[in-house]
Every structure is written in structure tokens, then in C-alpha cells.
Amino acid sequence: MIVLVFAGLVLLAHFYLWHRMVRSTTGPGRLRKVLSWGVVGLAALVVATFVGSRMEFGHWLAWPGYVWLALMFYLLVFLVVLEVPRAVAAFFVRRVERRAAPEPEPVPAMAGGAPAIPEPAPEAPPMSRRLFLGRATATVAGVGALGTVGYGMSSALGDPVIERVKVALPKLDARLSGLRFAVVSDIHLGPLTGRGHTERIVRMINGLEADVVAIVGDLVDGSVAQLGALAQPLKSLESRYGAYFVTGNHEYFAPSGPLEWIEELDQLGVRSLRNQRVEIKHQGAVLDLAGVNDLNGESAGDGPDFDKALGGRDTSRSTVLLAHQPVQVEQAARHGVDLQLSGHTHGGQIAPFNLVVGLQQPVVSGLATVDGVQVYVTRGAGFWGPPVRVGAPPEITMLELRA
């Protein structure tokens, strides 16, 4: 059912693009036919890209399919925004055409009183002003979409931004003040990323000289067999008290589930907190660091268990929770968590999707307080789907705790 709805939306979007980018810019003929079939092929490419992402041949479709998906989206955005000025311009064009239409001339009489048959006037090119208006609209939308996607690709494929954040925790032992977390999420190793993507992230994290590294889910988009080589640089992560990982929703999309990645990360020196907690001992004081599984694990019997992760602890200590989705703060609040570190949202990744994400998650990016719990949501260091980020550059966070 979901596939049919998705295919229907893709067809509807491409029909609108055909109407505005082909039918409104060309006359009947060979060019219109060629462009029309091109739009049909692009619609098929989008569907094939999503279907093929689960199969071995998917990587061949990933680059053209996802780049076109981004272009399609921004063409739709620009064309929809231009509908109002286009309608106003079309109104004035019609008025000009009516005023420019020549008045009918009186028919002269022939000899004997019969009306003369006037010579037919040369026919003006039909809808020439409207054709110009259609082409102007398509040009503005095309240039806008290409420029936006080009900028978004340079952002997504470039170095993540280092965000430096200080968070004051009321219960924090003064001896823990200054404890530093390197927070990264949504790396999304997949068909559009190479080993260099992981190496760059590891190099940047190591340059922060953090006390703890927290990988907050959505590390991969595939199996260990497909992507294991891309994850190898993670064994070079450096921190004083170790690197920790919690599952995201995409770990449960992998063909064999998250367990093979849990084992792989263990081999790379990254410890997974599966509804567990550990003690971070720093300068004679102790901080509880807990992690819960992602909500998507519930359907596989591997969902979050806050009682297991947080029950029975010393509540006088401050607790930092790793949970992939910000919405999990609702349960964290009931367990007395002081700070939750999350990802998942990508900061919206492609504006204006940040407005849509805000309908599902309590925080889209940055630091906020929800139900008395401070939540920091990182935008993530990678991307999902199109290799494009607009208004939400990739991020690695250096988060420092303060008493």
C-alpha cells in the first residue's frame, strides 16, 4: 500500500512538472514528445532508485536517482511559489491580447449589393505571449532548483561544522564540570558515501580531544558485507573514556537487523549501549551514561527499555542519556534524566522539511528543554537519500558539561 501511495505521488509530481516545464514551454511537435518521454523516464528512475536500494544493483541508480529527486523537489517548490506571480502575469497578458485584437472592419459591398468577401489576414503566432511566460517561469524555476541543489550538495559533501555547546546541569558534581562529549549521529554509511567520509569524521572527532565519543544512531544504510570496509576507520576513534553507540531506526532496516553491526562495532572498539548504562569516572566523581534502543526496534522485540537502562541507579548523580530520536525524551523525563543526546532529524536536511520534522519531533536541532529535561539534537554528519543539505549543514558537536 505504501509503495502504491509513493508511486502515485511521484507520478502526480511529474505530471505537474510536465505541465509547467514541457507543455507550457513547447508547441505540439517532436520536441514536446521527446521531453515528455524524458519526464516519464525520470519518474521511473525515482521509483527504481527506492526499489533498487534494497537490492545489489541499487548503487548504480543511487547517484542519478537521488540527485534528480532533489532537483524534482526544488523544481516543485519554485514552481508552486511562482504560481501566484505567474497567474497575475497571465491575467495582464490576456488583457493586453484583448486590447491588441483589431476591431472588425466593415464589409464593403460588391456591385449589385452583395457583400464583398474580405481577404484573410495573416494569422499571428498563437499564444506567443503565453509561451514566453511559460518559458520564463520554467527558466526561473530551473535556475533556482539547480542553484539550490548545487549549494546543497557542496554542503552535504563538505566538512561537517563543529558546533561547540556548553550545557549546565544543576545536579552535576563540580568535579565533572568541563567533561567533554564529541557527539555525532546519522553518519549514514551507504552507496553514496565512501571510506573517506568515515575517515574525515574520525579525523575531526579526534581533533576535538573529547573525553567521551557518543554515536547517536543511524550509522549505516546496509549490511556489514556491503559497508563493513567503510566503517573500518572507526577503530581509530580516540577519547579518554571510550566511544559509545546506540541504535537508530536505520540499523533496523538492515537485512539482518542491528546485531551484526553491534558485533562489528565491538570489533572496532565502539561499545553499544543496548538499554544499558555505564559509569564515567572523572576526577574522582561519577556520571551515569545510559543508552536506549531506537523506537523502531519495538516491532522486532528490541525496543527501548528505560527501566532496564535507568532503574536502580543513584539518583543523586547526573545522568546523560543517548537516545536516537528526540521524542524519546518523554520517557526520559519520567526517569529523571538530566540531559538527552539525540539525532535522527538531520535538522530537516532539506529546507523547508525542517517545518515538517517539527510536527513529529519536539526538537529539530540544537539545545532545548522538554518536560524539564535538556535535549541536544545534532543535525548529523551525513545525509540520507539525496546528497543535499539546505539550511542544515552537517554537524559534529563538542558538548561540554558545566556545573
UniProtKB/TrEMBL annotation:
The keyword Transmembrane helix applies. Residues 179-347 form the Calcineurin-like phosphoesterase domain. This is Metallophosphoesterase. InterPro entries: Calcineurin-like_PHP, Metallo-depent_PP-like, Metallophosphoesterase_sf. Gene3D superfamilies: 3.60.21.10. The chain crosses the membrane at residues 34-53, 60-82. Keywords: Hydrolase, Membrane, Metal-binding, Transmembrane, Transmembrane helix.
